[in-house]
Structure formats: structure tokens, C-alpha cells
Amino acid sequence: MNRLLAALILLPSMAFGQVRVDLNVKLPDIVFSTPPPLVVVQPGVQVVEDYDEDLYIVDDAYWVRRDGRWYRARDYRGGWEVVEERRVPVKVVKLPPGRYKKWKHSKKGGVVPASHRERGHDHGHNRGHDRHHDDDHHKGGKGKGKK
């Protein structure tokens, strides 16, 4: 009797070919309390300065790759979701993993605080260089070395 009852319960679900798959994907727990400082690393691509992994900002979204899987957050406060690689900006997918881990801006480059950029006060700092640096090679000088 118990077998018959079990068969009657299971048979309809098997007949329709129902399959249930549970995937446990751990979403990144990357959260900032204030907008992090950003460094322009190429046109249209920024990274969070001095962060422990490659954390990109492209098209007003945060992107991170972990174990071959891509994640996106629309805000520095989190809200991560899994994203298919075909939905990730190509310029980010092509970057070698680890290249911008712990990245710091150079003296020629500029750090753009996200809060500064978000308030519309960019004033050209988002271009990855500082117009006011004074290297001798831009002045036509011979440098400070021996002649």
C-alpha cells in the first residue's frame, strides 16, 4: 500500500520530466560605507584604488570576477548579482585577472574619488592624467641629470 501511494505521488512529476536544481552561489560581500577612491586605468575603466582584488567600475556598475564567474553591483553599498560573461563589458573581460589588484595611481595619473565624480565635479580628472604635472619632457627641458 505504501509503495502504491508513493508511486501515485511520484509518477505525475516524473511523467512531466520535472527537474529541480539548486545552486548555491556565494555572492560577493563587497560593501563600502562611503564611495571608494577610483583610479582610471584606461578610457572608460576605473578600479577601486588599493583593493585586495580587481574591482572594476564600468558604465556606472561595479564588476568583479571570482572563480571564473562574473558579478555586478549597481552601487558601492553592494547588491551583487551573478552575470553571464556575455553581459560583462568586453573591455573588462579582456583584462588579465590580477592586473589591477592593489592598484595605486601613479604621480601622473589621478585618483577620482567616487563621491566627487558622483556629484558631477569631475572637471576632467576622469581622463586618467593630470594636466598640471610638470615633467621636464613636457617642457622641452633636458632634465636634472648630468650633461
How much beta, percentage-wise? 15-25%
Poorly predicted segments: 113-147
Question: Could you say which structural class the secondary elements and strand pairing correspond to?
Answer: alpha+beta
- Say how many strands there are: 7
> How widely separated are the two ends?
102 Å
Report on the biggest sheet: 7 strands, antiparallel
Following the backbone from N to C, one meets helices and strands in this order, namely HEEEEEEHEHH
- Estimate the mean pLDDT confidence: 74
- The Rg value, from CA coordinates, equals 25 Å
What general outline do the C-alpha atoms trace? elongated
Helix content: 10-25%
Number of helices: 4
Strand order of the largest sheet: 6-5-4-3-2-1-7
Would you give an account of this structure?
It contains 4 helices and 7 strands. It has 147 residues and is of the alpha+beta class. The chain has a 7-stranded antiparallel β-sheet with strand order 6-5-4-3-2-1-7. Strand 1 and strand 2 form a beta hairpin. The protein is elongated and about 75 Å long. 14% of the residues are buried. The C terminus is likely disordered.
